[in-house]
Amino acid sequence: MMEHFIEVNGIKLHYVEEGQGELVILLHGFPEFWYGWRKQIPVLGKKYRVVAPDMRGYNLSDKPAGVENYKIDKLAGDIAALINVLGEEKAIVVGHDWGGAVAWAVASLHPAMVKKLGILNVPHPSEMKKALMGFNLAQWKKSYYIFLFQLPRLPERFIGRDLEGFFTKAFTSFLPKGKTASITDEEVAKYVEAYSQPGMLTAAINYYRATFRQIKDTSLGAHGKLKMPVLMIWGEQDIALGKELTYNTKDYCEDLEIIYDPGSGHFIQQDNPELVNEKLLAFFGK
User: Fold this and answer.
1) Global confidence as pTM
2) Which residues does the annotation mark as catalytic?
3) How far apart are CA 50 and CA 42, in angstroms?
4) Buried b / exposed e along 58-82 (16+ C-beta atoms within 10 A)
5) Domains in the chain and their CATH numbers?
6) What's the pLDDT tens digit per position in 142-168?
7) Is the dihedral of CA 55, 20, 37, 248 positive or negative?
């Protein structure tokens, strides 16, 4: 696995790369960084050129100041530019959580650049918008942290005062029933190291602040269904996002397959990496 830095859209992105062949971009969510794909990169890299960036604001990538620098169109623009700078015209794009939201945006705003789209445990942005702006009380309860993240400085202070405790509790609380811990103390230490980077906590939380401020203007999906093949893999024990948010996904995709895993939760790529790797490889190879 090789590490590199690359210039896109006036900022520097850090990424890891493994393998050769067709380009696959893996986009992480919160509270992770490229390392969230550690159980996929070596497997997918046997057949594909796998690139997992730290998205803007995360880990070793640049962290531009200001909430406006984390709007979804800018995040999607980074990935479109990344594909081009890597010397490709299009790529297979896979995203989890926030990375999934960005992947939806890349497919919607730059459709010619996405050959196939893989989504792990995040709904289409239009469905999330409906849930937050409508009276979906169940999802409101699950998304309480999104509202807390709108507060200035307080979330950073709360999380930053005990990063080790935060990550241990976060991954433990999201653990599906019947599963043993899917993250070790050594892996927690990797997250603590990444999130100790100056400005990272604010940048990561700014994703939520930027999206919440522009949620009324979210129009992804308003210009017709996505034409590229889409695979959604969903851990049914997700305590942050309700399964019902997936039910209307077909309204946004011409070619959609959804795989539900009753034994996994929000971090499905860690809870059941064998399933995720198998289904992604099958999807890529179709």
Assistant:
1) 0.95
2) 97, 208, 266
3) 9
4) bbbbbbbeebebbbbebbbbbbbbb
5) 2-285 (3.40.50.1820)
6) 777 777 888 889 999 999 999 999 999
7) positive
